[in-house]
Write a structure and sequence with these properties.
single chain, 544 residues, alpha/beta, Rossmann fold, 3 domains, six-stranded mixed sheet, five-stranded parallel sheet, 13 strands, binds 6-O-phosphono-alpha-D-glucopyranose, G6P_Isomerase_C
């Protein structure tokens, strides 16, 4: 039965008809204790939904829809390792990557939790060898720079986490520089190589498939750069001293030339965009040290246990997901802004763009039918205080309804004796609260606003969520990302789509390969559409 043919869905549609006339400012006038009614907490992690266009009836109907869709059973399937990724016939067990060692999860008669932890130990060995200076380059000098080469799920997560948790850097990592290279055009690598010392640089080639052309092209450029700057050393020495391969496809890594001794593995039951908890997280472990990385895993595991066991009425991922379903499928809001009020979280929008849009950007349900209801919205974002001077004009006075996630840490710089920074944090908090207040309540917050000219009016009624951490640290960051992962899964269950595959990214790769020939030296007369042919001819003319 299509997702939008159910009793609860119909009830929500009639409720939406009634609610579509309401304004959040009216809801606050009618329910003065909205904050206590619509705020939910889990271990110092606060989710405030009171600035959403919801009432208790809305939440009750949304929870009924989740129950009707068998959400609890689907959660069980996810954690038990059922093949929830049906188009690739695989489990999706990112939760296993952060499960404590004393647990058991049997997959094909093997306890994969043992494997997860032996892998973490292997990663720990490498982290310690690099931190202690035992990992030496071809000149015998210790490594002082690590460059992670990867794209998508093999880049966005580790990149985001290393930025978010830079202040939690391990003492043993203080002298280690960590860089990330992902873009296929070589621009990031070219710029970086010009300032790196080949003798002290270690490349981590991160790729689940180890077939991604972006990553292999960057890896090849890095290898040639090393060979040119170390004519004495053999290729074998160079690779064994300056390359680590992280992949779920060890044969391909060997084929590229990286020996098993320099490989870290993970499994095909880990989705790329869910993989930073695995050995793909090596850069994070190098930044935080293994104890920091384990704290990160523990935070996510804590959210896993909450998601698995808490009643839907107080289950943070379920409530966040269903508030989204309400906005998207019943209030017809298809734009979602991610607004971290913390410069450390500057990369979380890019990460969530992949997590959400590559997971739920689907229009075919699990039965293979085209859906006739909305799924994943357009998601984008920026550090909130910067975005205030960029696209907030549209959020406040544009014609688009946009749901907004404000993400902020209540405490910061409290352990620094720096009153200026502490003041800047207060400024940041004040702006975070002010912006969500106006976006939701409009200029009803202002005396006499109604007499202002139209171009100075603020209509508000933009649904806002505030996620407040006590502090940003490896544990709370693990909680935060796991919250969004599970939110995405819940929405996929309501929409009856598979969130763990990404067939939509394949055709572009194929067409690009065939176009490469047309651009290459042996170029044949392009035989594509007239626009593509024309552009190829222009490129080749310019190239001559
Ligand atoms: O880790 P890799 O196999 O290199 O894949 C890197 C990325 O590329 C693919 O095309 C998908 O879009 C992503 O889901 C994936 O994370």
């Amino acid at each position: 039965m299509p997702a939008n043919e159910s009793v609860a869905w119909n009830d929500l549609q009639s409720h939406a008809y009634y609610m579509s006339q309401s304004h959040i400012s009216t809801l606050f006038r009618e329910e003065t204790d909205r904050f206590s009614l619509y705020t939910f907490e889990q271990n110092k992690f606060l989710l405030d939904l009171s600035k959403q266009r919801i009432t208790e009836e809305t939440l009750a109907l949304l929870i009924k829809l989740a129950e009707e869709k068998g959400l609890q059973q689907w959660i069980q399937k996810l954690f038990d390792g059922d093949h929830v990724n049906d188009s690739e016939d695989r489990p999706a067990l990112h939760t296993a990557l952060r499960t404590p060692a004393d647990r058991i999860l049997s997959i094909n008669d093997k306890n994969i939790i043992d494997e997860v932890h032996s892998n973490l130990s292997r990663m720990e060995e490498i982290v310690e060898r690099i931190h202690s200076g035992q990992w030496r380059g071809f000149t015998g000098h210790s490594i002082d720079t690590v460059v992670n080469i990867g794209v998508g799920g093999s880049d966005l997560g580790p990149f985001m986490a290393c930025k978010a948790l830079a202040e939690n850097q391990a003492d043993t990592a203080k002298s280690l520089k960590i860089h990330f290279v992902s873009s296929m055009d070589g621009s990031q690598l070219a710029e970086l190589l010009s300032e790196l010392n080949p003798a002290r640089t270690l490349f981590v080639i991160s790729s689940k498939s180890f077939t991604t052309i972006d990553t292999l092209a960057n890896a090849q450029t890095a290898k040639e750069w090393l060979k040119k700057s170390s004519y004495a050393a053999s290729e074998e020495t160079l690779i064994s001293r300056h390359f680590i391969g992280v992949s779920a496809n060890p044969d391909k890594v060997c084929e590229w030339g990286i020996p098993k001794s320099n490989q870290l593995e993970f499994w095909d039951w880990t989705g790329g965009r869910y993989s930073m908890w695995s050995t793909i997280g090596l850069p994070i472990a190098l930044k935080l040290g293994m104890s920091g990385f384990r704290e990160f895993l523990n935070g996510a595991h804590e959210m896993d246990e909450h998601f698995r066991n808490a009643a839907f009425s107080e289950n943070l991922p379920v409530l966040l997901a269903m508030a989204g379903i309400w906005n998207i499928n019943f209030l017809n809001i298809n734009a979602h802004a991610i607004l971290p009020y913390d410069g450390r979280l500057s990369h979380i929008p890019a990460y969530l763009e992949q997590l959400e849009m590559e997971s739920n950007g689907k229009s075919v349900d699990r039965q293979g039918n085209n859906v006739d209801y909305k799924t994943c919205p357009i998601l984008w974002g920026e550090v909130g205080t910067n975005a205030q001077h960029a696209f907030y004009q549209l959020l406040h006075q544009g014609t688009e309804a946009v749901m907004c996630d404000f993400i902020v840490a209540a405490r910061r710089y409290h352990d620094t004796n720096n009153p200026e920074l502490q003041h800047q944090h207060q400024l940041n908090l004040a702006n975070c609260l002010a912006q969500s207040r106006i976006l939701a309540l409009g200029d009803s917050v202002l005396e006499g606003a109604e007499s202002a000219p139209a171009f100075k009016r603020y209509k508000g009624n933009q649904p806002c969520t505030t996620i407040m951490l006590d502090e940003l640290n490896p544990f709370s960051f693990g909680q935060l990302i796991a919250l969004y992962e599970h939110k995405v899964f819940v929405q996929s269950v309501i929409w009856d789509i598979n969130p763990f595959d990404q067939w939509g990214v394949e055709l572009g790769k194929k067409v690009a390969t065939s176009l490469l020939d047309a651009l290459g030296t042996e170029r044949k007369q392009p035989d594509f559409d007239s626009s593509t042919n024309g552009l190829i001819n222009r490129i080749t003319e310019r190239g001559e």
